[in-house]
Design brief:
Strand content: under 5%
Distance between the termini: 58 Å
Number of strands: 2
Radius of gyration: 22 Å
Order of helices and strands: HHHHEE
Strand order of the largest sheet: 1-2
Number of helices: 4
Length: about 100
Amino acid sequence: MTAVKPDLAALDAADPLGPLREAFYLPEGLRYFDGNSLGPQPRAAREAVLRVLEVGWGERLIAGWNDEGWFDLADRTAARLAPLLGARADAGGGGRFHLPKHF
């Protein structure tokens, strides 16, 4: 019995996730499979960080705390994490949450 070698280029071209590769910074021809890593840098992440540096901090200065939503970021983050951790978000602010006693 002879093995049939698939047309890998055709499979790549037909892959519906193929276009997502362009969303990341990757050297041409590289196949990146490291599971113990941040992974390839998303282009959107770089753009977001640069926008915060240049506009949120660079142009808005202290107004960025409110304009960018940094002032209440800890509270919003705690509210989103609390259900995942089986905790309740503390309405007192500061991004605190309370875990059940078994933690």
